[in-house]
Structure formats: C-alpha cells, structure tokens
Amino acid sequence: MGKKTNSSLRNILVITALLFAVAGMAFVMKNVASPYSGNKALPDGNKQDETQKHETVEFSLLCAGDVMAHSPNIKSAYNASTGGYDFNDNYDFVRDYISSADLAMCNMETTFKGGAPQGYPLFNAPDALAEAVKNAGFDIAITSNNHMMDTGFTGMQRTIEILRAQGLQTTGSKYEGEKNYIVVDVKGVKVGIVAYTYETSGTDGRITINGNLVSEESAKLINSFNYNELESEDYAKIKKDIDGAKADGAEVILTYYHWGNEYQRTADNIQIAMAQRTADMGADIIFASHPHVMQSIEMLTSADGRKVPVYYSLGNFISNQRTETLSNRYTEQGLMGMVKIDFDKTNGVIVKETVSAIPVWVDKYGAAIKYAIIPLDGNIDSNPVLTKSGHLQRARQALEDIRGIIAQEYLDGYVVDIKPEAKKSGK
Question: Are the beta carbons of 281 and 239 closer than 8 angstroms?
C-alpha cells in the first residue's frame, strides 16, 4: 500500500513537472516570436537577425500621360440643366488603378484661366476638370508642357491656384519664391519630383513655349529647356534641381519630361541622350509625354551602376485625338506607368523595383457623346461601355498595337533587384 502510494505520488510529481516545463516553453516561444512579428527589439541577451534590422518600405508610383480638353471633350461634359460641367465619368474605369497607387500623377495639358472654356489651339478648361482629376485619385498635376502658356501669365498662375484648391500638388510651374521642384512624403519615403518642358524657337533672347512669347516675369516661374542649349545651360539647371531635391531630403528622384516629336512612335536621339544624362545626374525614374502616342519603356544603367526605368512617352490619357479626327488610331491609346519600389530606409537605398505599364484606350460613344478611359485588362470583354458602344474590336486592336511597342515583360511587371552598395553611390 505504501509503495503504491509512493509510486502514485512520484507519477503526480513527474506529470506536474512536465506541465510546468511545457508551459515554460510556451512562455518562452511567445516572448521570442512576438518581437519579430511586431518588429520590436528582442529582450536583452538576444540578437535580431541582421536582415531584420533593415526597415523596408514598399510603395507605388503611378503616372498617366496627357490629360487634354478639346472642344468636344468640354461639350460632352456640359450639363444644360445645371449650366455646369462634370468630367468625373471619364475616369470611372481607371479610378481603382489610380487610387490604389501610393502616389499618382498626370500631365495636365491645359490651363484654367476662368471665363469661357475653349479647346485647341489655346486650351482653357472648365475648373470642373481639376475636380474630376482629383476625384479620380491623382495626387500631383504636372504643369510643364507646351500648352502651359496658352492663356498667358494670368492663366499659368490661376492654373496652379485651381489645381491646388482641389488638393492636388503641382510642379513644373510655380509662384514667386517657390522652388523648381517638390518633395513629397510617400509612406515615410521622401520623393523628389522635377518636371520640365521643351521650348520653341526664341526671339531676341526671349523664350517661347509652343510659339507663345514668354514674358520675363513668366520665364522665372516655369521649368523649360532648349534642345540647342542642353549642354551649355539646361543640363546644369536640371542637375541643380535634382541636387536641390536631394538636399531637401529626397531619397528617390522622379523626373518628368515633355519632349519628343508629335505622333512619332519611337524615341528620337535627343530623348535617348537626355534620358541617359538624366539618369547619370541622379534620377531614379523617368516619365515623359508630348508625342500623343506611346513610345517604348527601357531600363537604363546610370554612370554609377543604378537601374533607371524610362517611359519615353505615355501617350494620351484622354483627348479627342482619334481615328475620326486625325486618321490616327494610335492617339487613342496610352499607358499608366506603374513603378513599385522596395526601399531600404535603414540604408536609404532602393533594393527592388517592379516596372510595369497598364494599357488604356479612350472610347467615344453614344448619341449625346461620352468619353471613357478603358483599361485594357482582363475585364475588357465585359466592359459595359464597350458593350454599349460596340467598340470592343477597336479596343482589342489598341491592345495589339500597344503590345507591338511595349515589351511584354513590362506589361507583366519587370522586376529589378538592385544591390544596395551599387545604389549608395548614386545618393
């Protein structure tokens, strides 16, 4: 009886000890796992894996091409019952793409002077267009393009006012006392944006934009370059802005150019040379527009070994330039350029980029005339606008055209792994 009691007691003690051991292990496991999941420091005496010391931020940058407002676009947005304009439905099918990006921008190729709206050749859009662009999900409007001076100094300045009133940031033109670039915070990473447009032939030492003489007052407030003065003056201006953005904390540099030849589907030698020079000057991403048709995407290697994507032309985002008006179907097509970045905040370097393009096509349809930007994605066959307009085949043709210009790897998402040590020298 005593032996049995002693044996039972021993068994109870053993079981109790095992339970305490298991509980202790669970406690230790909980306290080891938790700091990793919350990215907190480990208890004293423990060391975190080296890779977990790096704070990596993932974010996306989206850029669309030319937002234009020709007279038919303006007319289609007019509501006779209210006497106002509404462009919101133009963006219904691309809104999700735009708003999903951490930073979205477009080229605003019109002015907002107020008064009677008008289209080509001197663009002056209703203020409602700025509201629609903001509602579509854009954060930044680029204002440096060949139509920025269509309505003179007053129009150029009021354009900034109207866009900013909608909550859009602007760059490419400015108010007195502001810098030629902007630096914005994207999920804790500082992104510098530098935007320039080309000049046309000057007169008596004064510049012109699209043939419009630019006053000395205006010239100080716009970002422009002259193809014939790149080496002598303008590269230095652009480099100064890139360096200035970096000095103001920019960790990633994005440049936007309005350049090239209208309706030319391949980049010319000047575009190619400018892109390479810009990469060498410290740009991390190059977006561009003006030709009104798409051009290729390429991956450049900068002088310090960084990989720099260049979108030579994003084409039109929305316009009335189309087969019916120009006998040119390529002006109906465009891209939303998307660059997803993995940024090592600890070392201040880009470690990975995913470079991609979302093809779009503009449909014009209905007795009352409507416009819609159609993403040429997996939903193309069931898009309700294409079903209504009967233009599905035109949209499919647009996609085939785009595939002939844009390498499939970029349509799929081209991943570039970047060695941190190679990137450091560029910063």
Answer: yes
Rg (CA), the chain: 27
Strands (E), 290-385: 297-301, 307-311, 316-318, 333-344, 349-365, 370-375
How far, in Å, CA of 271 to CA of 184, rounded? 26
Q: Which domains does the chain have, with CATH numbers?
A: 2-52 (no CATH), 56-424 (3.60.21.10)
Complete DSSP assignment for 178-231: --SEEEEEETTEEEEEEEEEE-EEEETTEEEETTEEPPHHHHTTB-EE-GGGII
**Which residues neighbour 406 within 8 Å (Cβ) at sequence distance 6 or greater?**
294, 296, 297, 335, 357, 359
DSSP state of 48: -
Q: CB atoms < 10 A from the CB of 32, how many?
A: 12
SS3 call for 351: strand
Report pLDDT for 52: 53
Q: Which SS3 state, helix, strand or coil, does residue 256 take? A: strand
Residues 164 and 62: their CA atoms lie apart, in Å, by 19
Give ∠ CA 84-85-91 in degrees, rounded to 5: 155
Cα 26 from Cα 286, distance rounded (Å): 52
Query: What pLDDT score was predicted for residue 125?
Result: 98
Report the distance separating Cα 114 and Cα 125, nearest Å. Answer: 8
Check residue 314 and report its DSSP letter: B
Question: What is the per-residue pLDDT for 204?
Answer: 78
Low-confidence stretches of the chain (pLDDT < 70) are 1-53, 419-427
- Angle at which helix 128-135 crosses helix 152-165, to 10 degrees, equals 40
Whether the CB-CB separation of 285 and 251 falls below 8 Å is answered with no
Phi, psi of 350 (to 5 degrees): -80, 130
pLDDT confidence of residue 25? 37
Which of 65, 119, 64, 70 is closest to 364 using CA atoms?
70
Tokens of 128: 């409602």
Handedness of CA 113, 294, 380, 388 (dihedral sign): positive
Q: What pLDDT does 418 receive? A: 73
φ, ψ of residue 358 to 5 degrees: the values are -105, 110
End-to-end CA distance of the chain: 83
pLDDT one-digit tens code per residue, 83-100: 999 999 999 999 999 999
Picking from 292, 316, 345, 285, the residue whose alpha carbon sits closest to that of residue 106 is 316
